Amino acid sequence: MCSLSIVVVALLALFVVTVDSFGNLLVTRGARAECRLGARAEKRRKFVETGLTGIGLGFVLGGGAQVANAIGEVADGNSLPDGAKQFSRVLKSQKDVKEIIASLSSSPPTDSSQWKVLSLYIRGLYSLSDDMTFIGKGLAPEKKKMAEEVIKTFKKDVKEADVPAKAEDVEEFKKLMVKAEGGITEFLELLQDIPQDL
Fold it and tell me: Is the whole model's pTM more than 0.70, yes or no?
């Protein structure tokens, strides 16, 4: 953010110097005293210089920080509104769990550091239930009740996955990750408004 402000100030200074140089060039080409419009041109040049300087300083000191924050948030992927942000995390987690299940089948963890990473991952996955709860608030009452049950089961399965992670039991851990992925899928199905008959 600081580097963005420095760049803006540098560009603003360059522009003011360019405007000033252009104004001086106009003045040297024709004698200001002999030119009827010289005073008006000088006033316009000063007005433009002062206005641009004021706008630039206002940007840097005031709204520039907000713009820089907004740009930073967009770049970080954090600018989605509530609801969409949580939904995005649920979809990403579903994809991540599927990848973990596939990697457990093809190349299971071999040392304790890999199991520590998986243990930390499931702790983060457990917090996904907060996002699911937030999204579930907007559901119809009957679906909301079903979502609460799905979230409860999801939390239980993820919490139980910590035991095989500590014991380094690949098959039991994989089984619980499959159940967790099923919970995420079931929750996402509750968000659909398409009738089952179609």
Answer: no
